[in-house]
Amino acid sequence: MQVSLAGAARVLLAGDNPLTPKAFLIRYWDKEIHNNLPKSPFILSKASPLNAVDAATFTKLAAQNALSTKFSAFCSSANLFCFPDLAPRFENHHGNSNFAVYLNKNFTNYGTGVVNGVDSFKNYSDGDNLPVDSFRRYGRTSIDHNEKFSTYGSEGNVVDQSFNTYGAQSRGGASEFKQYNEQVNVPNLRFSSYSDDGNVKAQSFSSYTGDTNSGSESFTSYGKNGNAVPNEFTNYGENSNAIQSDFTNYGENSNGANDTFKSYGFNGNVPENNFKNYGAKGDGFETFISYREKSNVGDDSFQSYAKRSTQGNVNFNNYGKSFNEGSDTFSGYGEGADGQKIGFTGYGVNNTFKDYANKKTVSFSEYSNISSTATTNKLSGNLVNKWIEPGKFFRESELKKGNVMPMPDIRDKMPQRSFLPRSITSKLPFSTTKITLLKEAFHAADNSTMEKIIMDALNECERAPSPGETKRCVGSAEDLIDFATSVLGQNVLASTTENVNGSKKDIMIGSIKGINGGKVTKSVSCHQSLFPYLLYYCHSVPKVRVYEADILDPNSRQRSTTALPFVT
C-alpha cells in the first residue's frame, strides 16, 4: 500500500526526551502501523520541534483560546508561518532617501510636508521569504515630491504590502511603480486611501507584478477627490497566474482624472478584475487598450462604474480579444452619467450588460458577443496548454525506461513549517464558522494576507469531495497516519520523491517498479496547503496505478532521484 507526500526529504533525528511531540509521534507510528518497514524520514522531519515544556505550555494556552498572547514565541518555537507584527515608525525626514536592500519595514508618518526631492526604493525586499511592508501616512501634504519603487520585492514569497493613506493632500510630483513584485508568489498588495485629495500627482504602474503566481491586488478609495491625477497601468499583471485585482471606490469625486489601462493582464491565466463603484461622480477619461488580451478564461466585473459622472470618455479598445472564453459583466454601468462618451472597439466575447448607461452615448464597433464555442475552440488549445507546465501530466505509455521527458518544477515554494502536535490542533478551531478565533490566534487582521490564506485553506478543506474521492485535511502527523490507515489498513508504506534533482529540466526514465505489480491499487496522496502550520490536503481516488521510477540525468545517465508518478 502507498502513501505519497509531495516534497523533498530532509532527515532529522528523533529527540531523546520521550515527552517531546516527536517522540510521541514515533510511538504512535509503531502503535498504528503494523510492519517493520522504515519510517519515512520526510514525515519525521516535519514533526513538531517543540520541546516537552513548550508543548505543554502551548497546549494549555490553546485550550484557553489564549495562544495569541504568546504569538511570537509560539510561531518561533513551533516553526510556523506567521507574519511579523510591525511596529510603527514615526520619524520624519527632510531630504532625499535611498532605500536599498531593506526588509520588513513600516513607514508611518514618513515624509510629511516634504518639499521636492526623491525617495527611491530599489532592490527592496528582493528575494525575501514572507516580506511585510507597510506605508502609512507616507508623504502626506508633500509638494513636488517623487517616489520610485523600482525592482521592488522581486522574487518574493507570500508578499504582504500595504499603502494606506499614502500621499494624502500631496501636490505635484509623481509615484512610479516599475518592475514591482516581479516573479513573486502569492502576493497581497493593498492601495487604500491612496493619494486622496491629491493635486496633479501622477501615478505610474509599469511592469507591475509580471510573471506572478496567485494572489490579489486591491485599490480601495484610491485617488478620492483628486484633481487632474493621471494614473497609468502598463504591463500590469502580464503573464501572471490567477491574479485578482479589485478597484473599489476608485477615483470617486475626482476632477479631470486620466486613467489608462494598457497591456493590462496580457497573456494571463484566470485573471479576475473587479471594478466596483469606480469613478463615481468623477470627471475624467478612462482608456482600456489591449486589456486582458490572450488571457485564459477569467472574469471581469464592472459594477456601479462611472455612476453620476460628468463629461469624460471611456474607451475599450482591443479589450479581451482573442482570449479563451471568460466573462465580463457590466452592471449599473454609467448610470445617471451626464455628457459621457463610452466606446467599445475590438471587444471580446461572452459579456453581459445590465442596467447600462444611456445608449445614445455608447458606441459599439467590432463587438463580438458569441454564445457558440466555435470561435473560442480555435483559441483554447494553445492558450490552455501554455499554462500546463511541461511534464506535469503525461500518458502512461510515456513512462518507459530510456524515455526522455520534461520534469515539472517540484521545488517546495511554500514557507518552511512543521506539523503541530495533535494535542494543540485538537484545541484550535478549524472551520469557516470559527474564523474569528483562528484570526485572533494567528494575528490575522481583517482583509489581510493571512486572513485570505486561512480562508482559502478552510474553503478547500470544507469543499465536498469529488465523486469517488475520500478526503481529509490534516494538521498533525498523527492525523495523517489515522487517515492513511483508515483508507489502506495498518500495513502501509510512506514514500516521497527523494529530492528535487532534475526539476524544470529534461530527465530520462530509468528503472520502473509498479506498486502492486502495476495493477490498480489503493493509494493516498497528500498535497501541501498554505496555512500557518503544516497542513496537508490528503485524498484517495479510485482506479489508480502507482509506479516508482528512477530519474536519470539524460547526458550522464547517472541516477538523480526516485519519483512516484500516479496514473489514473
UniProtKB/TrEMBL annotation:
Any one cellular-component term (Gene Ontology): apoplast
Membrane spanning stretches? none
| UniProt entry tagged with the keyword Phosphoprotein | no
* Statement: the UniProt record of this protein carries the keyword Transcription regulation: no
Source organism's superkingdom?
Eukaryota
UniProt keyword terms in alphabetical order: Apoplast, Cell wall, Glycoprotein, Secreted, Signal
Kindly list the places in or outside the cell where this protein is found, as annotated in its UniProt entry: Secreted, Cell wall; Secreted, Extracellular space, Apoplast
Q: Where would I find the BURP domain in this sequence?
A: 393-568
- Which InterPro entries does its entry note? BURP_dom, PG-associated_BURP
Q: Name one Pfam family in it.
A: BURP
Name under which the protein is recorded: BURP domain-containing protein
